[in-house]
Write a sequence for this structure.
C-alpha cells in the first residue's frame, strides 16, 4: 500500500508536461509580441519615408520655382541735385526650374516685389519687365533672362528719398519659389549710373 501511495504521489509531482505547456505558451506570447512590434516598426518606417519623400518634393518644387539675380543691381539718378530715378535688376531662372510669371499687370499667380528702406515700406511695387534673352513673353522660362525696372518716384508709394549712403531692400516673392531678399547700399556720392553689388 505504501508503494502504491508513493507511486500516486510521484505521479502527482511529475510536472514535465505542465512545464512544456507553460514554455510553449510563453514562446507563443513572445512571438505575438515580436510580430506586433515588427508591424509597428515597419508601419512607422513606411510612414516616415513617405513624409520624407513629400518633404524632398516640396523642397524641389520651391527650388525649381526660384529666380536668381544675374549681375548687380543698377541704380540711375537724374536731376540736380541727383536723385534716384530707376532701380534695375536682371533676373534668370534658377536651376533650370519651372517657369515664373513676371506679368506686372496680372492679378493672380504673379510675382510681387516689396520695397523697404528706413522711411518707406511698399509691399506691392509697380514694375516693368523687358525680355533680354527669351521669347518675348512675361514668363521667365529656363534659359531666359529678363530685366525688371522699378521707377522709384512713381512705382514705389510713397516715393522714397534715397540719398548717398542710404540702404534699401527689395524683396521678390514668386508664386511658388523662395523669397529673394536684395539689400543694397548707395555709394557715398551719387552718380547718374551706379552698379551696386
Amino acid at each position: 500500500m505504501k508503494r502504491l501511495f508513493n507511486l500516486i504521489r510521484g505521479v502527482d509531482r511529475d510536472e514535465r508536461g505542465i512545464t512544456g505547456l507553460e514554455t510553449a505558451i510563453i514562446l507563443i506570447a513572445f512571438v505575438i509580441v515580436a510580430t506586433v512590434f515588427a508591424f509597428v516598426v515597419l508601419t512607422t518606417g513606411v510612414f516616415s519615408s513617405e513624409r520624407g519623400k513629400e518633404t524632398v518634393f516640396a523642397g524641389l518644387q520651391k527650388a525649381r520655382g526660384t529666380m536668381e539675380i544675374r549681375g548687380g543691381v543698377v541704380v540711375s539718378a537724374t536731376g540736380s541735385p541727383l536723385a534716384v530715378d530707376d532701380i534695375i535688376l536682371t533676373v534668370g531662372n534658377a536651376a533650370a526650374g519651372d517657369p515664373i510669371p513676371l506679368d506686372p499687370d496680372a492679378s493672380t499667380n504673379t510675382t510681387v516685389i516689396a520695397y523697404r528702406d528706413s522711411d518707406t515700406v511698399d509691399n506691392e511695387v509697380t514694375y516693368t519687365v523687358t525680355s533680354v534673352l527669351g521669347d518675348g513673353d512675361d514668363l521667365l522660362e529656363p534659359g531666359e533672362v529678363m530685366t525688371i525696372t522699378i521707377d522709384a518716384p512713381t512705382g514705389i508709394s510713397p516715393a522714397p528719398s534715397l540719398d548717398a549712403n542710404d540702404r534699401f531692400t527689395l524683396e521678390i516673392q514668386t508664386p511658388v519659389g523662395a523669397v529673394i531678399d536684395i539689400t543694397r547700399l548707395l555709394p557715398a556720392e551719387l552718380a547718374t549710373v551706379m552698379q551696386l553689388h
Q: What stands out?
A: The domain at 67-196 is CATH 2.60.40.10 (Immunoglobulin-like).
